[in-house]
Amino acid sequence: MDASGGDQAVITPEPPAYCQNHLGPNDTLPLAKLDWEKVSVPATIGLWIFLSSIARIGFSVSPLKKYIPESCVLICIGLVIGMVVLLMPGDSDVKLESDMFFLFLLPPIMLEAGYFMPMKPFINNLSTILMFAVVGTLFNAATIGLSLYAVSEAGWLGYQDDKPIRISLLECFTFSSLISAVDPVAVIAVFEEIHVNQVLFILVFGESLLNDAVTVVLYRMFEAFNEIGQDNLVAWDIYAGFLSFFIVGLGGVIVGAMFGFLAAFTSRFTNHIRVIEPVFVFIISYLSYLMAEMMSLSSIMSIVTCAMVMKPYVEENFSSRSLTTTQNAIKMLSSISETIIFIFLGVSTLTEHYNHTWNTVFVLYTLVFIFIYRAAGCLWQSVLVNRFRMKRITNKDMFIMSYGGIRGAIAFSLSALLCANIVAANKIFFTTTIVVVMFTMFVQGITIKPIVNLLAVKKHEHTEPTMNEEIFSRVNDHALAGMELILGREGQNHLRQRWIHFNNKYLKLLLIRDHKKVRHQQILDVYQRLTEQAAADYIEMHGAFHPTGSNAIKQPATDETDGLNEFKPSVNSVSSDVPRISVVEPDVEIQPVGSRKSQEARRQKNILVKSMFRPSVSEPPRRKESLMYRSMKIQLQHKLQRQRRTGAAVPHHRQQSGHHAHHGDHHHTKQPEKEVPQMSPPWAQEKLKPAKVTALPPWLQHDEDGYATDSEGSLLV
Question: Is the model's pTM score more than 0.90?
């Protein structure tokens, strides 16, 4: 009873869902029942992924693969699903939610982009990428926004309810900020299929990654300006918008770098529990994305930076199985996310019909302005950066860069976030964004491959660099850094060398568990076995081997068995004195000398040879022979210099030249020493047969000072 004397009302709470639909006293126990509502959402998504995967398998073996990008096929599948959803009874609320896109679908794609980013080309072209990403995006946003505002003020957009359609300046800038940026998801989907050269791909893809910071800043800034009102803006609002460029971009990079180093440091202690190693790559990179998104920073910049920072360290700490699992999982998640994005893009185009407002003039002018200002921006920026680039951007590359400005799901999601209370023309912007995305994906995406083939644009060949190519690349980097230091100009090459020095001295010591470990130890093991085997073969054939230094054998063995037992070469003693020729033909099978070599030893030798040198097919045999003799000359010259410095026995033909030392009354004549035969690999012994009785081949002479010269008297350097 309450105070008034009435009965107190009893409120019975509603039971939860799992407490409902229980069996009654008159019901019987069912053998099974169908509960679709319980699993409808995950089952629908899983079914879409399964059907799209089947469609991708069929597309990969169909002739359409040569003409249509895979992303266009996925959008078409989404359009078909959207039509089915519209024909089904009931409300159709299937669409691409912005939160689902930015928080769940976009991070795996950006993680793959950062993890597999070619670091050296990206760093070498970073200044050009920043030029296109920052200055180019600002140029496109400003010109497109002003042009659309001029069209609106001219009264060309038509009438609605007997009133001319007007779009304010801030609304035009809001739309231009989201439509001017190149989409990284669309660029990955299209440009990876046409296989353009690495520099062109890095420029377009790097621009699409880094212009996210500019796009996010512009979009949020103009959206805030619309909330404040055009008449209520003050100078501080404009200054804050300008400063937010640096805060959003650099803040995302700093957050990503911090989490990248955290992932690298954590992976140092996972050697006793290898099964959880891939977890740190995914969880920590995703946390960097969420942290940047929470702080209103560039989340794409954060996760890309995190992946680029942690990759070289976690690959050193991870086991080979964990590394393979991580790479395959990143590829798989990225592929699934791309599939869902493009399917939902097609579905949302039809199911969100209530959010469309068609304006033909606005759509056509938007398409025209996008193409004109994209081409103009690429032209004047390429001309400007070519003045400072060693490898210039060609006219063909300029055209492909301007034609490859594809818009995608990021612009679509940002347009869906526009609120009607803030931006009155949000429905016009949403419809126009869909048209621009579909036009660039289908028209430009389908025609860009034939245009690349027609213009004969240089394409990228996916080949692993040989050991010689890697060595030459490092030597070239050191040479360029030295030139910059001599000229007094600290450019990117000098900064790269300083970073490498700092990384090797401090970061690897802190972040890598065993930083002194040789990464490719198996190559050194094969090389040591081959060197020892070659030395034993030489002793077996020639009877002796006379190395220099502390391990020198002054009297060669007369018996082959004694010489073989007496000399026990190691990689340190043999490799420093044995002439090694690195120019060989990898396609020619190296035949073993004698019957003691097994098939495994011959296979290891051929693998090592192929990894050292891969000559071109068009290289003439005479050129290969000259390279071989040149290498022999240089190595024999170094051997002679070591003999002179260590006081070892001089060559036999030098003793017959009459240059003996005479000091005062002491006439000391050196006793003639036995000849020192030079060792060579088995495949080069036919070339060195004349040098069997002398220390050096006859074509290598010496002047009076002991320097090596050729047959014409030219000094060998």
Answer: no
